[in-house]
Amino acid sequence: QVQLVESGGGLVQAGGSLRLSCACSGGTFSVYHMGWFRRAPGKERELVAAITWTDGKPYYVDSVKGRFTISRDNDKNTVYLQMDSLKPEDTAVYYCNLLGTGYWGKGTLVTVSI
């Protein structure tokens, strides 16, 4: 049974930083592309960042480029999202996902105050 557990969310002031983690268990994590999604209040879920399993190549949505960094540690079965220069519009529940699968974590809430 594949399980994804996010952690690291919280309340931070604008301009601050948070590091999200997604711990994976129950599967061969290293062969999946991984993604971080978010759902802001009243908005659709969007892909924020992704990373390939082959060469660790990252992808970012334009709104977070230069501020967020995705990385993965296949030995620890964990994917990270370093979020810097946070803005109030980054407030959302953040989820990790094995791309192309129905495996999702339950999410971690990030709240960025003015």
Name some characteristics of this structure.
mainly beta; six-stranded mixed beta sheet
Structure commentary:
By secondary structure, the chain is mainly beta. The protein is 0% helix and 50% strand. It is built from no helices and ten strands. It has a six-stranded mixed sheet with strand order 2-10-9-4-5-6, with no helix packed on it. Strands 1-3-8-7 form a four-stranded antiparallel sheet, with no helix packed on it. The radius of gyration is 13 Å and the shape is globular. It starts with a strand and ends with a strand. The mean pLDDT is 95.
| Strand elements, count | 10
Low-confidence stretches: none
> How would a crystallographer describe the biggest sheet?
6 strands, mixed
- Termini separation (Å)? 40 Å
Oligomer: single chain
The count of helical stretches stands at: 0
- Write the element-wise H/E pattern from the N-terminal end onward: EEEEEEEEEE
CA-atom Rg in angstroms: 13 Å
Strand fraction? over 45%
> What share of the residues lie within helices?
under 10%
How would the global form be characterised? globular
Q: Give average pLDDT, whole number.
A: 95
Spatial sequence of strands, sheet with the most strands: 2-10-9-4-5-6
- Class computed from helices, strands and strand pairing: mainly beta
